[in-house]
């Protein structure tokens, strides 16, 4: 029996925003489950600071009765996926970590703190900043003026209310002591043109996971927009390569 698949979205994102182009393909072989974290989608915003343990347990609870499952994490969702594997090792069969981090370096931290600051201000200014760091430069350059304007409007209208809490969690997350103990098969996927999470930061995450595999997307920090088919292919090929039961 092929294990199910859980999807863990990124900070300031939702399941729909971060994964919707992939779900039809990934669902062909596996049952796919996901949850919007507090403050995203229709999930109410938390009344206290977010904790990684809580998000990991919420994600696993979304498995809806599945005994075992692989977890695909994106950005902040990578940290949630890792913690889910640490807390529920008997249930997590594999990890796919895309554009993630073990901890935030100074360069990335400066960008995240600017994002956090702009969340309190004008939505158009925030949207322009987010587009500048989320989209890879080659993809951004190919957009027409009309496409860029439409993307800006979409960002401004869909900022999750829980974004400040989620960005705060990213800034204080540190998995460096935890990652070397992972025993689950893991694929780490970097984003070649990532302007939010430094590509070297994702590579450092891979280096800390024993036996992890590495792949790279020709995209920025928005693979669901820039390279959805290739991203889905990498996920499926990795999971298929693990054989039955994985």
TrEMBL record:
Molecular function terms, GO-annotated: hydrolase activity
Annotated Gene3D superfamilies: alpha/beta hydrolase
Keyword terms of this UniProt record: Hydrolase
A Pfam family assignment: Abhydrolase_1
Domain AB hydrolase-1: 3-227
PANTHER family: MONOACYLGLYCEROL LIPASE
Protein name: Alpha/beta fold hydrolase
The species this protein was found in: Saccharothrix hoggarensis
